[in-house]
Amino acid sequence: MLSEEIPYGTRHELKAFSTPPDMPIPDRLNLILILSIWAGALALLWLGSLVKPWYAVILVGIAFSYLMLTNYALLHEASHENLQLSPRRNYWLGVMAGVLFPMPFSVMRSTHQGHHVHNRTDVEMFDLYYPGENRLVQTVRWYGILCGLFWPLVPVGAVLFSISPRVIRDKYLARFKPAGYLMNGIQHSGIWSVRMEMLLIILFFFTLHWLLKLHWLHTLVLYGCFSVNWSTRQYVGHAFSKRDIMEGAWNLRHTRLMSLILLNGEWDKNHHRRPDVSWYYLPRLSSPAEVRPGYLKQYLRQWLGPRPNTEPAPVVSSPEPLLAGK
Ligand SMILES: [Zn+2]
What we know:
single chain; mainly alpha; 2 strands; 54% helix; globular; disordered N terminus; binds zinc ion
């Protein structure tokens, strides 16, 4: 049993932890998924430019947005080094998923490790507010995420990070700055990795538009659909959960089709407990009798707005990156 190898609750004290031998990374399946998503995304981007009526562009955009949810799930796997056994293949397939998002893979890896290490602390508390806190800022940020405005911040932030000189980065993103926990994993040569990955993204989109004669506006509509579909569900796995770095997440109940699209992303509590386990096995980490809240009900609960905080903030216990040791 997995829980006997590394009991829950001790994970943060472990120096390194490795992929469980009975749960190997599904290398071939993940590779097929990445290649299929690339083929599907290129086809939909092309189709989105080909169709003329606005409603047809939106319909293609909706299909594109669901395909990109699976792409994000694979990008997420790569950020935990769970996409491929070989670190080199994991990196390059992660870069491929990042290009379609679009987000430099190194940015995803750093920001996502920051999310895991600081989960449910004050910097990752979007759903709750302290007495006397500015409710307006909290409310605008919360409904901004739900309405789909989170996604544009990612590519825009990555561009600003890529072009900003060191003095600016140190002023806003150094280790002890409020947002420093997100980008702190990117140091020295890592900054050049972000710049090269950013360049690859720009080259990809310009080449694609030139080769397939795509319409920029139609492409933006497709990404607009993805922006809403992705952003609105970004906090559903954590909203109103316990303020605990590891346990502050939900295992939700969803339809089989959405489980496939999200690559078991609704099992977020199991993922936070064991980020070294591939998406493929997440349901196995729970007993079949576990009671899970419904995904839709949990999603709709968020629209009632942020709530007063009643728990103390958890203390960050480990600065270690939560990557599977290979
Ligand atoms: Zn994760």
